[in-house]
């Protein structure tokens, strides 16, 4: 069986999830890791039994076909550009890039080289979110006309050892957590037409309370409280609130309101969760879950985690000559949505999007099972 060799650049926190979960999938095999800190690469290589490289060594390795970019967001564009220039397919953590111009440059380079680019998040491939899509497509709540999304907490300086970059331009809650919500909305409803937003930051600094930097004060240079309105091409208007200035709330993660009912979708930061629906009688009831491979609980904390599914789907797409679902076009449109939201927050006006995309192909239970080893 043909497997595509995978290399990983960036050996921070998220790399362990990729290294741990990649063996679940049929068409990929992680063969190397790299980091600007060679000791970090060597530690992950030893822990997971793969070769540790410096970055140039990994990019030049003959047995690596796809390189996964797990660097910090500010480095995503440059590292992905280097991957493509080295003749490798690229798959990036979210967000793919920080500006639309960077996305268009990667699109042109990938086309010139005849290479694929994919990007997280891939949680929308989860069983719950694919079932929600099927219900919408089958008219289960009529035509979706409105909705609300909330992802709000008090930030990450309480637990992350090095939270600095989360509060700098290119991060904040919209670009850090927003990709999960925006991408899922696009796969459920299609592309976005225009956006409006208000944005602010509650405080100019944050105090780290995690170790080893407990007590250190860091600057806040990006909005931490963003409330947006998204108008979709199909006509729905969805409010999206992302904030790191909220201690507690009672809002649901995602609610979609249709002409014949309402659909309650769990947190798109995860693959699984419980779907609920209400019909014209207004009674909310649970939805019997699909037996979908990417909805099954596989972690001790009771969650479904199938990160690298998007990478595996891209690899299979390369091998089969079909489009992959976590596509460059989808990622660029999501970046366009999020950066337009931030721009609207600065300018105080609606912003029309300059990109669009097709909804990614649905991933039913059978197609999902076909990705697994």
Automatic annotation (TrEMBL):
| GO terms assigned for molecular function | nucleotide binding; oxidoreductase activity
Q: Which InterPro entries match?
A: Gfo/Idh/MocA-like_OxRdtase_N (IPR000683), Gfo/Idh/MocA_oxidrdct_glycsds (IPR050463), GFO_IDH_MocA-like_dom (IPR055170), NAD(P)-bd_dom_sf (IPR036291)
> Is Oxidoreductase one of the keywords UniProt gives this record?
yes
Name the keywords, alphabetized.
Answer: Oxidoreductase
Residues in domain Gfo/Idh/MocA-like oxidoreductase N-terminal? 5-118
Ranges of residues in domain GFO/IDH/MocA-like oxidoreductase: 129-263
From the UniProt annotation, give the residues forming the signal peptide.
Answer: none
Q: Quote the SUPFAM superfamilies the UniProt record gives.
A: Glyceraldehyde-3-phosphate dehydrogenase-like, C-terminal domain, NAD(P)-binding Rossmann-fold domains
Lineage top rank: taxon: Bacteria
Recorded protein name is Putative oxidoreductase protein
Species for this entry: Candidatus Rhodobacter oscarellae
């Amino acid at each position: 069986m043909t497997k595509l060799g995978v290399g990983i650049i960036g050996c921070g926190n998220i790399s362990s999830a990729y290294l741990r979960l990649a063996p679940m999938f049929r068409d990929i095999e992680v063969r190397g890791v790299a980091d600007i800190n060679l000791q970090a690469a060597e530690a992950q290589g030893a822990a997971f039994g793969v070769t540790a490289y410096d970055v140039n060594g990994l990019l030049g390795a003959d047995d690596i076909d796809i390189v996964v970019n797990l660097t910090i967001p500010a480095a995503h564009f440059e590292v992905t550009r280097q991957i493509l220039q080295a003749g490798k397919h690229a798959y990036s953590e979210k967000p793919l890039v920080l500006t639309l111009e960077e996305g268009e440059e990667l699109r042109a380079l990938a086309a010139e080289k005849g290479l694929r680019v994919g990007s997280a998040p891939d949680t929308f491939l989860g069983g719950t979110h694919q079932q929600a899509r099927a219900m919408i497509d089958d008219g289960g709540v009529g035509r979706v006309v409105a909705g609300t999304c909330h992802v709000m907490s008090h930030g990450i300086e309480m637990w992350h050892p090095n939270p600095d970059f989360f509060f700098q331009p290119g991060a904040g809650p919209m670009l850090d957590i927003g990709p999960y919500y925006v991408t899922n909305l696009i796969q459920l409803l299609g592309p976005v037409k225009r956006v409006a937003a208000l944005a602010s930051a509650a405080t100019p600094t944050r105090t780290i309370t995690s170790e080893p930097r407990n007590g250190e004060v860091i600057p806040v240079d990006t909005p931490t409280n963003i409330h947006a309105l998204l108008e979709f091409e199909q006509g729905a208007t969805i409010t999206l609130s992302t904030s790191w200035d909220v201690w507690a709330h009672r809002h649901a993660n995602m609610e979609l309101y249709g002409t014949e009912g309402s659909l309650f979708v769990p947190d798109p930061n995860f693959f699984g969760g419980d779907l609920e629906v209400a019909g014209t009688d207004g009674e909310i009831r649970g939805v019997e879950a699909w037996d979908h491979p990417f909805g099954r609980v596989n972690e001790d904390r009771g969650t479904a985690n199938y990160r690298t599914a998007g990478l595996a789907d891209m690899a299979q797409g390369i091998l089969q000559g079909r489009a992959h679902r976590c596509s460059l076009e989808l990622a660029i449109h999501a970046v366009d949505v999020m950066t337009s939201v931030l721009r609207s927050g600065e300018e105080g006006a609606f912003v029309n999007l300059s990109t669009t995309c097709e909804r990614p192909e649905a991933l039913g239970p059978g197609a999902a099972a076909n990705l697994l080893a």
